[in-house]
Amino acid sequence: MVGGFLEHISSPADVKALDSKNLPALCQEIRTTLVRYGKLHGGHIGSNLGMVEATVALHRVFDSPLDKIVFDVSHQSYVHKMLTGRAPAYMDERLFGTVTGFTNPEESEHDMFVLGHTGTSISLACGLAKTRDLMGGLDGTSGTRNVIAVIGDGSLSSAIAFEGLNNAAEQGTNMIIVVNDNEMSIAEDFGGMYGQLARLRASGGTSQPNIFNAFGLDYRYVEDGNDVAALVEAFSQVKDIDHPIVIHIHTAKGLGLDAEDAAAGVKEGRCEANHWQDPLAAQGNPLGARKHYGQLAMARLEPRFASEPGLVVISPATPGSNGITREFRERAGVHYVDTGITEEHAVAFASGIAKAGGTPVLATSATFFQRTFDQLQQELSLNGTPVTLLVFGAGISGADNTHSGAFDIPMFANIPNLTYLTPTSGDAFLAMLDWSTTSHDHGAVAIRVPGEPILAAERAAATHGGAYPRYRGGTAAETHAKGDAGNADTPFARYRVTRQGTDVAILGLGNMYPLAERIAADLAESGDGGVSAIDASVIDPQQCTSLDTACLEALRKRHSMVVTLEDAQLSGGWGEQVTVYYANQDGLQPAGVDKHMRVLNFGAAKEFTDRVPAQDLYKRYGLTAPQVEQAIRSALR
Amino acid sequence: MVGGFLEHISSPADVKALDSKNLPALCQEIRTTLVRYGKLHGGHIGSNLGMVEATVALHRVFDSPLDKIVFDVSHQSYVHKMLTGRAPAYMDERLFGTVTGFTNPEESEHDMFVLGHTGTSISLACGLAKTRDLMGGLDGTSGTRNVIAVIGDGSLSSAIAFEGLNNAAEQGTNMIIVVNDNEMSIAEDFGGMYGQLARLRASGGTSQPNIFNAFGLDYRYVEDGNDVAALVEAFSQVKDIDHPIVIHIHTAKGLGLDAEDAAAGVKEGRCEANHWQDPLAAQGNPLGARKHYGQLAMARLEPRFASEPGLVVISPATPGSNGITREFRERAGVHYVDTGITEEHAVAFASGIAKAGGTPVLATSATFFQRTFDQLQQELSLNGTPVTLLVFGAGISGADNTHSGAFDIPMFANIPNLTYLTPTSGDAFLAMLDWSTTSHDHGAVAIRVPGEPILAAERAAATHGGAYPRYRGGTAAETHAKGDAGNADTPFARYRVTRQGTDVAILGLGNMYPLAERIAADLAESGDGGVSAIDASVIDPQQCTSLDTACLEALRKRHSMVVTLEDAQLSGGWGEQVTVYYANQDGLQPAGVDKHMRVLNFGAAKEFTDRVPAQDLYKRYGLTAPQVEQAIRSALR
User: Fold this and answer.
1) pLDDT value of residue A262
2) Is the C or the N end of chain B the one with fewer CB within 10 Å?
3) How does pLDDT run across B388-445, given as a tens digit for each residue?
4) CA B239, CA B550: separation in Å to the nearest integer?
5) Do residues B421 and B542 touch, judged by C-beta distance below 8 A?
6) Any CB–CB contact under 8 A between B110 and chain A?
7) How far is CA A438 from the centre of its chain?
8) A-contacting residues of B 358-397, CB under 8 Å?
C-alpha cells in the first residue's frame, strides 16, 4: 500500500494536482484511515467506505465551492471532509471529534448545509440551482456553477426525495444527482422501487421502466462505483451539463471493512452495526437505554404474536438502534414491517392498520418523528386510531444538532387527542405498552421510551438494592383512577404521589423522575451552617398531555411551591402547563385574596445544541440536584 | 335528461340494482346536482365533477364497506357520499351543509377516514390491507376484502404518496390504486412526472418509462375516465386481484360546468376558483383576508423583480387562495415557482435559494405548513437561511377539522432560531415583509398574514375614520430598538405599547389586537350599577417567538395584572410564555416578598373543531370583549 498522499491534501486543488495513476492509492489510504477512525472513534463508517472513490472523483472533476455539492443526510461526507482540509481530524486521534459527523458550513466553505435527516438534498440543490439560474446561469454572477446532490444509501425512498426528483426535472437546468446505490439502506432496502433498481444494475442501466426517466430525468449508469477512474470519466462527461441528470453508481457499502472484521471475529450485522459504531467497540459494553428498553418491549410483544394476528411492529429503517434485533425480526415474520426510511408513510400505515382492527406499534427516534407531525395530527389523532408509538432517544442528550431529542414534548404534547406517556421505570414502560396495545379504547398513544437517567437509576437500584424502581404494577385503583383533566382518558392520567411531604412538591417527568427523588432526599437532610431540612413531596406525572388538576389543587393544602423538571425544551413543553394552570386559577381571584401557588420550571432552553455532553446541558439548564435545591431553598427562605 | 334515479339511491346496493343502461343517466343527474350544489353552496366542485363516473363505477363493482375505498384528500368524495345515503344533502338546499366536505367515519360506515391533506391514501390503504392480510387475506376474518385508494387531481406528486406507492409494491397483496389523471392540480400540474403521464395518455398507457411500473406496480389505463361502462369493465377485471395495481383513468376536471359558466360570462380561472367555491358566487363580494393581504404582498414584491434577480415567490399548489393571481404569476415569470402540492420540497427548496443568495418568499396555509415541521426545523432554522414564509389562514376560523389554522403558534413559536411575526395591520404586514426580504441578517422569518379580525378593523376604520390602523412606519427608533430577550434579533422584537394605562395591561397578539383595543375602550367607561372605569394599557407584541422582558418588567410599575389574547391554541402557544416568565421570576423571590404579577391567558383549547363558526369559537374560548372584561373586572375587584 502506498501512503502519504492524504496528509498533503488540504483542498480539492491538491486532489486535482495528483497524477491520475495515484488516485487509487489515495482512495486506499482514505479507506484505511476510515477503518481505523471507525474502530477507534465510531461513526457512519459503512456508508462512507462505499463512497471513497466517488468523493475523490467529485473533487477531481468539479470545482468546489464554485460547484456546490450537497450530501444527503451528510452521513457520507467524511471523505469530502478529508479532501477539503479536514483530513487530520480523521488521521490524528488527538483530533478525532474536532469535526462534526455531518456537513457544516461553519467548518468549511465546501459544506453547503447542516444536514442529518434524509432525502432533502435534491430539494436543497434545486434551490441552489434556482438562484444560479436567476442570476445568469452557469456563467452568471451567482457564484454557483454545477449543482450536485449526492443521495442514496436508502435515503432515496424518503418522501421528500421523490418530490425533489419530480421538481428537478421540472426545473430543467444543470443539476447532477449522484445516486449511491449500495443495495442497502440502514438495514435492508424496502420498497417496490428497489426491484427496478436491481434490474437497472443487472442490465447495465438499460432496462425499462427506469424510475429516473419516469420522473423526466436524464440518466447514466456506472457499474463499478468504486472504480475511481470510471467515476472521473462519468463525472467529466456531465460537468456543465445543461439539464438535470442522474448518475446511478453501484457501490459496496463498507468496502474494506470485511477483512479486518473477519480477523477480529465479527461476522454479521456489519452494515447495521457500523452505521453508527464499530461493532468491536460495542462488544461487551452494557446496552444503552435505547437498546435495553427496546429489547424489553420487543420481548414483551413477541409471545403475543401467536394469538394476536393483528399485532405488528413497524420500524422505518432503524430497527437495530432501538433494540429491534435481526433475530427478533426474523422470528416476528409478518408481525414486523420495515418501511424503509419513510416515517410519514409509517404513521399513516399504522393508522390504517389500527382502523382495520390491527394493533400497530411504531418505533423510531424522537427526532425522526418530527417528519410525521402532520400525519400525527391528521391521519392519527384526528382519526382517533389506537396506534402505539415508541419514541426513542427523547430528551436531553449529547447528540449532534441534527438529532436532538429535546424537542419532543412541545411537538407531541400539543396535539389534541394524543396521549404522550412518560414512564419512569422499565416496569412502568411495559405496563403502559401492555395497556396501549391491549385496550383499543383510546386514540394515539406515544410512549417516551425511558432514557439513560432511568436506566442508570434502575441499574444502581439493582446493584445496591435501593428503593428504585418504585413503580408497582397496574392494579392499584388509586394509581389507575381516571383523571378528570382535559381530554385525558388513560389509566395513567393521574399523577402518582410517591413521596408525601409539605412545603414544596417536585414533579419529575419521565427521565427527570430520579432527579426529583434525589432532590427530595437531599432536602430532607439539614445541612451545614444551619440549613434546615425541607420535607418535599415527589410526584411522577406519568404523562404530559393532560393535567391532573385534582392533584394540583390538592397540593395547595400543604405546599406553597411546585417545581417541575423535564429533560426537553421548556418552551411549549409540559412544566409550563402546570404554571399556566395555577396562574390562571389564581389570577381569577379577586384582588387581595392571597391564593397563589409559586411555580419554578426547569428544562431545556429553546436552542440547538451540537454534541454538548448531556451532563453539561443539565448544568446549563439548572437540571442538577444542587441547582434545583439552591433555588428551592432560596425561594422558601 | 332522465331524472329521478338519485333520490332512490340510499346505499351502494341501489347502484348495483340499476339496469346498466341507466348508469349514464344517473351520472348525468349527479352532475347536474353537483353543479347546482356548487353554485348555491360552494365546495370542491371541479374535482368531483370529474369523478362522477368513476365513483358510480366503484360502487357498482365493489362492495363497500367490505371493500374499503380511501379517497385521498377526500375532496373527491361528494359522489361517494351521494351514493352512500347522503344524496339529500346535495339535492335539498335546506340540507346543504349537513354533511361535511370530506369523508367522515361518523357520518357513514362507507367513509374510512377523516382526510383533508394530500397524498396519504395509499399509505392508509396499505395499513388496511396489512391487517386484512394478517387476518387471513381476502377471505379471512378481518372484515376487509378489496382495498382501494383513489388519488390524483395533483395529490399524486405529494411526498408521502410516493412513499405509499413504493411500499404498496413491497407489500405485494391486493390493492387497487385509482389514479385520477385530470391533467391538472389545484392550479397547474408541476413536476417532471407529469410529462411521462402525458406520454402514457398519448400512448394509451403503453409507453415506457411507466412510473407506476417503475415503482414495481402493475398498471392499466382507461382513456375515457368519464365513460361509466368502461370504468365498470376496468374495475370488474381487477376486483379481488392478488397484487397491487394502478388503474390510471383520464378524466375531465369540472366536466359539465363549462356550459353553465360560459352562459353566465365566467370564462377563466375556472379550475382554480371552483376548487373551493363557485366563481359566480364570489363575484362582487369583497375579498377575504387571505386574498386581500396576499394581493397586497404580491403587489409590494412585484416592482422589485426587475432589479432583484434572486427574488422568488414560491407557492406549493394553492396560489389562488392566497391572492397570488394568475395575472401576477404570468407577470412574475421566473420569479414565481409553483412546486405542485409539495410543501416539504418547497421549504427545503427555499432554504437552498436563500443559501445561494436569493430571496425566497414561500406562501401557503398554516395547516399545510404542518407538513414541513421537520424541514422548518432542520433545513431552515438549523441552517439559519433567511427565508420568508407567509402563513395564510392562521388563527381561529370556521374551517373544517382538517384545515384548522389554530395550531400554528405552538408549531412555529417553539422552533429555535425562527422568528414568527404577527402583524396587526396591513401596513405592519408590509413593513415586516420589506424587512424580511431586504435584510439577510436573520434566519427564517414566518409572517402570520393578518386575518379577518384585522381586515374588519381596517375596513371599519377606512369607513368611519377611526384610529385603526395604528401602525406607524418603520422609522421610529423606540419601536424598532432591538429586543434583549432570548434569540430575538429582529427590529420587531420589542412590544409596542399603543395605549399607556394602569392596573391591567392587555397584550393582543396579531388578529386579537383589535379585540384588545376594544376591551380597553370599554373598560375606560364606567358602567351601570356603579362599575368604575379601568384605565388599561394596550400592547401589540408584534411577534410571538421571544419575550420583550424589558417591557414585561416595566409593566410591574403600574400594573398588577396582564392579560394575553391569541387566536390560536393556548397550550404550547405564546401567552403561556408570558405567564411562565412572570411565574419563574416571581417564584424565585424569597417567601414573604410580595412580588407577583397576575396573568390571565385567553386562546383556543387543545381540540379539533369542525366547521364551528369563528364567532362561536371566540365565545367558547372567552375571546370576546364582554367575557374578557368581566374576568378583568372580577379579578381587580
Assistant:
1) 54
2) N
3) 999 999 999 999 999 999 999 999 999 999 999 999 999 999 999 999 999 988 999 9
4) 68
5) yes
6) no
7) 28
8) 358, 360, 370-371, 373-375, 377-379, 381-383
pLDDT of residue B513: 98
Instruction: Find the angle CA(A323)-CA(A328)-CA(A331) to the nearest 5 degrees.
Output: 170
Which ipTM did the prediction report? 0.93
Residue pLDDT, tens place only, B319-354: 888 999 999 999 999 999 998 888 999 999 999 999
For CA atoms A411, A416, A418, A424, the dihedral sign is positive
Name the pTM for this structure.
0.93
Q: Under the phi-then-psi rule, with left for phi > 0, alpha for psi from -120 to 50, and beta for the rest, what region is A183?
A: left
Mean pLDDT of all residues in A410-431: 97
SS3 B315: strand
pLDDT score recorded for residue B636: 87
CATH of domain B6-250: 3.40.50.970
CATH code of the domain occupying B492-636: 3.40.50.920
| B633 Cβ under 8 Å from any chain A Cβ | no
The pLDDT-based confidence of A85 (bands split at 50, 70, 90) is very high
Dihedral sign of CA atoms A291, A294, A298, A300 in order = positive
Distance CA A198, CA A209 (A): 12
For domain B289-464, the CATH class is: alpha beta
CA separation, residue B536 to residues B54, B507, B520, B522, B574 (Å): 61, 10, 5, 10, 21
Under an 8 A CB cutoff, do B576 and A580 touch?
yes
The one-letter amino acid at B417: N
Reading the block at residue B372, the C-alpha cell is 414541513
The CA distance from A341 to A320, in Å, is: 13
pLDDT at B259 over 80: no
What beta strand segments (E) does A200-301 contain? 218-222, 244-250
Same fold, B6-250 and B492-636: yes
pLDDT at B276: 42
Cis check: omega of the bond before B303, within 30 degrees of 0: no
User: Cβ–Cβ contacts within 10 Å for residue B434, how many?
Assistant: 14
Fold of the domain built from segment(s) A477-636: Rossmann fold (3.40.50)
Q: What would the mean pLDDT of B220-237 be, rounded to a whole number? A: 97
Furthest C-alpha separation in chain A: 87
Q: Do B159 and A157 touch (CB under 8 A)?
A: no
Pairing of strands B311-315, B359-365: parallel
* Pick from B533, B536, B435, B522: nearest CA to B482: B435
Average pLDDT rounded to a whole number, residues B246-258: 87
- Joined grid coordinates for residue B566: 391569541
Residues in A closer than 8 angstroms to B196, CB to CB, are 213-216
| Residues of chain A positioned with their CB less than 8 A from the CB of B378 | 114-117, 120, 370, 402
Distances (CA, A) of B548 to A178, B105, B487: 47, 46, 11
Per-position DSSP letters for B333-380, written without gaps between them: GGGEEE--S-HHHHHHHHHHHHHTT-EEEEEEEHHHHGGGHHHIIIII
Domains of chain A: which residue ranges? 6-250, 289-464, 477-636
Residue ranges of A 51-90 with Cβ closer than 8 A to chain B: 68, 70
Q: What's the residue count for chain B?
A: 637
Q: For residue B487, list chain A residues with Cβ-Cβ distance below 8 A.
A: 606-607
pLDDT confidence tier of residue B245, bands split at 50, 70 and 90? very high
- Rounded Cα–Cα distance for residues B370 and A539 (Å): 34
pLDDT of amino acid A275:
42
Among A198, A238, A274, smallest CA distance to A37 is for: A274
Radius of gyration of chain A (CA): 27
Helices (H), A67-158: 78-81, 88-91, 121-134
